[in-house]
Amino acid sequence: MAVSLRGRWLALAAALLGWLFDGFEMGLFPVVARPALIELVGVESLPSSEQDRAIGPWNGTIIAGFLVGAAAGGVLFGWLGDRLGRVRAMAMSILTYALFSGLGALVTHPWQMVVIRFVAALGMGGEWSLGVALVMEIWGGHSRGLLAGLIGAAANFGYVLVALLSLSIVEVRETLTGILLWLGIPDSFVERLAANSGWRLLMLMGMMPALLTLFIRLFVPESGNWLREKQSGATRSWATRDLVGVFVGVVACGGIMYVWSQDTALAVRLAVTILGLVIVAAGYLYPVQRYLNRSGETAANRRVIYGRLALGTSLSAVPLLVTWASVMWTANWADQLGQSQGEAGRYAKQWTQFSSASGAVFGSFGGAILGYVIGRRLAYLGLCLGSLAIALLFFQTNDAFNAWFLISVFFLGFVTAAFYGWLPLYLPELFPTRVRATGQGLSFNFGRILAAVGALQTGALLKSLGGSYPQACTLVSLIYLVGMVVIWLAPETKGRPLPE
Predict the structure, then answer these.
(1) Least confident among 68-77, 156-165, 366-375, 452-461
(2) Rounded-to-10 torsion of CA 332, 333, 334, 340
(3) Could you tell me which residues come within 8 angstroms of residue 27 by beta carbon, excluding any fewer than 6 positions away?
(4) Count of domains in the chain?
């Protein structure tokens, strides 16, 4: 069931737009976090050090909720992609994150933001795995290095878009408020949306991707690989009742988040975290395990798939953990530094995200091409070494928001984001068509669960270290050492076709 050249380009265009808006969703909260939490927590516009430490844990909890939602969405929508088709599931995932991102403009309490970001992330996490599976299958495994680079670059360009919008928020705010008033929205409501740096308006703009779903349903062709699986009857082995495992996993994640948001003893936190992660792993694996049993897979094949899931999760978790528990906090740190510099630091967080994301756009291509040229294992090892070195350089050589801060954060984004070109190159090569969307979705997004725990750790570290971003983020960056060991357990897939 070959897809025409036009169909290939339409699928690629839809997936690239989906990943761009994924990046927009992920980059949105780091920019709006500080003004949003200052308003939602009810502290002064220039919070004291003590109040700032109160904002940090909320920021970590919201980030953790987002990552947990993305992990659950990767499994949920990956399951839908393997059961109903890549295209239908991708349209549903984009509509989910678009609608709920926009609802973030209406929240009045930090816990409401946790819930809204969680549900929005369900769709975002699903779209990543579905888009990767669809593009790699429709293109038949050709140009994998280039396609993987485009995937990573598109997502990071979404971060750039958020930074540009927030830098021009005055102009954007005036335009949007004019449109809302013209539509008959009450003045008092529009004024509330535009207050406090216009963070609610930025959240409202997260609804833009909803229009993409219509394009996907009308014009994007389905994967021929999946259609062949459907004709063979393999897709019928996925059962809706198995999704109860995902629900159990989400509840366990909620328990972990709750314990870390309270002032409980460290021993209790660690015990609950370990138990919770075991329950999450069992719950998220349950749909896969049930499918493999019903589909008649041999014991040897099941062992291979489970082993690939463990490897994919570990390799994804390392960069994801450092990104969300360290690199993503640079905008908050820049905002903190910028406040002491008056007008010169007014847009510190926006310029920081713009510089970091610009580096990440190029780095994503670099990671994919490096893996394609020198092999998957050597490339991953090099990225771990390079990322650790640049993280130490950035966090240990900056103490003010200045030109060096922006230059060094550009290279931090360039090197650390290269993994997001490498991962969409490598993960599809680990799994056969019948479990590809679920397998790579579970691998990449379960890594986000571990990253969520890391984000909570960063919030706790900040609190214990007196709000020192360099110390907390430097400690988290040492996780790259784990990746340097794990990669040697993974198979080398350079030059091999996608498994059927």
Answers:
(1) 452-461
(2) 110
(3) 158, 159, 161, 162, 163, 353, 357
(4) 1
Which amino acid is present at 2? A
| pTM for the predicted model, two decimal places | 0.78
Residue 200, in any domain of the structure: yes
The CATH number of the domain holding residue 459 is 1.20.1250.20
Closest by Cα among 493, 483, 272 to 375: 493
Of 159-173, 202-216, 344-358, 407-421, give the lowest mean pLDDT range.
159-173
Q: Answer whether residue 335 is part of any domain.
A: yes
Give residue 218's domain range: 5-489
pLDDT tens, 197-221?
678 887 888 887 877 777 787 788 8
pLDDT cut 70: percent of the chain above it: 92
Whether 274 maps to a domain, the answer reads yes
Kindly report the average pLDDT of the chain as a whole number. Answer: 82
pLDDT, tens only, 438-466:
788 778 877 777 777 777 777 677 777 77
Three-state SS letters, the chain: CCCCHHHHHHHHHHHHHHHHHHHHHHHHHHHHHHHHHHHHHCCCCCCCHHHHHHHHHHHHHHHHHHHHHHHHHHHHHHHHHHHHCHHHHHHHHHHHHHHHHHHHHHCCCHHHHHHHHHHHHHHHHHHHHHHHHHHHHHCCCCCHHHHHHHHHHHHHHHHHHHHHHHHCHHHHHHHHHHHHHHCCCCHHHHHHHHCHHHHHHHHHHHHCCHHHHHHHHHHCCCCHHHHHHHHHCHHHHCCHHHHHHHHHHHHHHHHHHHHHHCCCCHHHHHHHHHHHHHHHHHHHHHHHHHHHHHCCCCHHHHHHHHHHHHHHHHHHHHHHHHHHHCHHHHHHHHHHHHHCCHHHHCCHHHHHHHHHHHHHHHHHHHHHHHHHHHCHHHHHHHHHHHHHHHHHHHHHHCCCCCHHHHHHHHHHHHHHCCHHHHHHHHHHHHCCHHHHHHHHHHHHHHHHHHHHHHHHHHHHHHHHCCCCHHHHHHHHHCCHHHHHHHHHHCCCCCCCCCCC
